[in-house]
Design goal:
Catalytic activity: XTP + H2O = XMP + diphosphate + H(+); ITP + H2O = IMP + diphosphate + H(+); dITP + H2O = dIMP + diphosphate + H(+)
Largest sheet: 7 strands, mixed
EC number: 3.6.1.66
Family: Belongs to the HAM1 NTPase family.
CATH topology: Maf protein
Order of helices and strands: EHEHEHHEEEEHH
Bound molecules: inosine 5'-triphosphate, sodium ion
Number of helices: 6
Enzyme class: hydrolase
Strand content: 25-35%
CATH architecture: Alpha-Beta Complex
Strand order of the largest sheet: 2-1-3-4-5-6-7
Structural class: alpha/beta
Subunit structure: Homodimer.
CATH class: Alpha Beta
Shape: globular
Number of domains: 1
Helix content: 25-40%
């Protein structure tokens, strides 16, 4: 058995594989689940995981990850629109937007939704940090402009990022629950 990680984002898969190594194998699967209009990442992820589990034949468990970057000074923007904003505005220009603000605090949030024949469970993770000019070649997405404790997430190894990140925290909650079932 392998967990089917339904995502088009290879960075997410790398982090999940690294974290779940020795617990459960992870396989990337492409499936375009419906992203419902909602301000709740948990609701979006849970519905997506359920739909993917059913549509993929209800054989193997499914994992979905819905994440966002929430910038304090921008009223939480881009939040649930983070993927769209990365594609259109871009990471560098989002930094320039934040640069003009005195308050550069931001947080990443992610919700992991796991679905199998017994039901659907969600696990959340958050990390608070500061937006900075882009640094580092690792990670993905907004990592180069998100600094935690003096280091951008793009300057961290996958293992280091997992030890402090929103996704790492959600994976920790998931792994604990998964192991205890
Ligand atoms: P899937 O929906 O296919 O999983 P996606 O990249 O569209 O992939 P999201 O909607 O969850 O995923 O992503 C929201 C945005 O936030 C997107 O631009 C990501 O690149 C970015 N993002 C998510 N997790 C991140 C992380 O750990 N570090 C930096 N950026 C991240
Ligand atoms: Na997405």
């Amino acid at each position: 058995m392998a967990i089917q990680f339904v995502t088009g984002n290879e960075g997410k898969v790398r982090e999940a594989e690294e974290y779940l190594e020795g617990i459960e194998p992870v396989e990337q699967v492409s499936f375009d689940y419906t992203e419902i209009q909602s301000d709740s990442l948990a609701e979006i992820a849970a519905r997506g995981a359920r739909e993917a589990f059913v549509e993929l034949g209800e054989e193997e468990p499914v994992l979905v990850d819905d994440a966002g970057l929430f910038v304090d000074a921008l009223g939480g923007f881009p939040g649930p629109y983070s993927a769209y904003v990365e594609d259109t505005v871009g990471v560098e220009r989002l930094w320039r937007l934040a640069k003009g603000e005195e308050n550069r605090r931001a947080r990443f949030e992610t919700v992991l939704a796991y679905a199998d024949e017994t039901g659907t469970e969600t696990f959340e993770g958050t990390v608070a940090g500061t937006l900075v000019a882009p640094r580092g070649e690792g990670g993905f997405g907004y990592d180069p402009i998100f600094e935690y404790d003096g280091t951008t997430m793009a300057e961290m190894s996958t293992e280091q990022k997992n030890s402090i990140s929103h996704r790492g925290r959600a994976l920790a909650a998931f792994a604990e629950w998964f192991d205890d079932r």
